Amino acid sequence: MLVVLAFIIVFHITSIVLLFISTIDNAWWVGDTFSVDIWRSCFTNGTNTVCKDIVSSNQSYQTIQTIQATMILSTILCCIGLLSFVLQLFRLKQGERFVLTAIIQMLSCLCVMIAASIYTSEHDQFHPAPVPGDGRYGYSFVIAWIAFAFTLMSSIMYLILRKRK
């Protein structure tokens, strides 16, 4: 049982790291001369890289704010889930354990899915490509979807683990 708990803790910490990377790093939409995330746009001209924050004058600013908020909320919920797991491990009796942690992880999973889905459907409205369709999804976007899968699996593991001794 100790090995299972250690595996779950490592899995949960991996989920948190993936969420932090996908939320912070500047690679949601990339091209040869630019990269865009949910916070700023960076353009490369030869050796110069110029980064600009996404401002409220952008026509899709509310959409971007929604993506930002759900990614931050997902990261916070995942961190709270880890804290909840540790506290429930020693405080609750068998059968009651980890239900709260599973619910928190499921909410984190839902937030990542919402953010990545909105970005998938609306990215063409706010990426800086000179020609529509120019560019590709970056690794931060892919990591967000992997974090979705990890948080979903960990919430299911917590539900299964709640009955184990």
Could you please describe the fold and organization of this structure?
Pfam families: PMP22_Claudin. The protein has 165 residues and is of the alpha+beta class. It has one domain: Butyryl-CoA Dehydrogenase, subunit A, domain 3 (Up-down Bundle), CATH 1.20.140.150. It is built from four helices and five strands. The chain has helices at 2-24, 61-91, 99-126, 139-161, and strands at residues 29-30, 34-36, 40-45, 48-53, 136-137. Strands 4-3-2-1-5 form a five-stranded antiparallel sheet. It is elongated, with a radius of gyration of 18 Å.
Strand and helix order: HEEEEHHEH
**Cα Rg:** 18 Å
Q: What class do helices, strands and sheet pairing give?
A: alpha+beta
Strand order of the largest sheet: 4-3-2-1-5
Mass-distribution shape: elongated
**Helix share, percent:** 55-70%
Number of domains: 1
Query: Cα distance, first to last residue?
Result: 7 Å
Strand content: 5-15%
CATH class: Mainly Alpha
Biggest beta sheet summary: 5 strands, antiparallel
CATH fold naming:
Butyryl-CoA Dehydrogenase, subunit A, domain 3
For the secondary structure, the number of strands is: 5
**Spans of at least 5 consecutive residues with low confidence:** none
CATH architectural label: Up-down Bundle
Q: Average the pLDDT over all residues and give the rounded result.
A: 85
Q: Helical stretch count?
A: 4
